[in-house]
Write a structure and sequence with these properties.
Blueprint lengths: L12 H18 L6 E7 L10 E10 L5 E11 L5 E4 L11 E5 L6 E2 L2 E2 L4 E2 L8 E4 L3 E7 L3
Length: 147
Amino acid sequence: MVDSGILNKDTGGKLKLFQIVSLLTMLLAIAGCYGSMSGTVVDAETGNPIEGAVVYVEWTKTKGIGLSYTKTYKVAEELTDREGQFKIGAMLGPFVNPPTIVIYKKGYVAWRNDYIFPDLERRSDYHGENAYVFRTYLKIKLVYHNA
């Protein structure tokens, strides 16, 4: 019989088992945890920062088996400052979907990280980390920070 050593009392089997269970527990606990994000919103034509733009971030959880649906888990909303900058705090929660980010300022076309307004074409130019996205009116730089 082959002994893997995981439960062998001579090799500290209980300690190894505890380490494995602890590692799995930590991995499950951080699944769906997102660090803080910050960014700058500027006018795409002039390059000037946009003060007072609304930055809306929503995290959801997928529920159900088979015919699944999403349910809001957490929402954060910030306004950009004089330099067009914003910061959203970290979101810690197990099994949370990636956030939906919407940025809007009156007089501009709204920006969304997953679809392009107004025809709702699926966005392919956004990748999350240090992403620059150029669209008709808004230019957004988002930076994710580790939790």
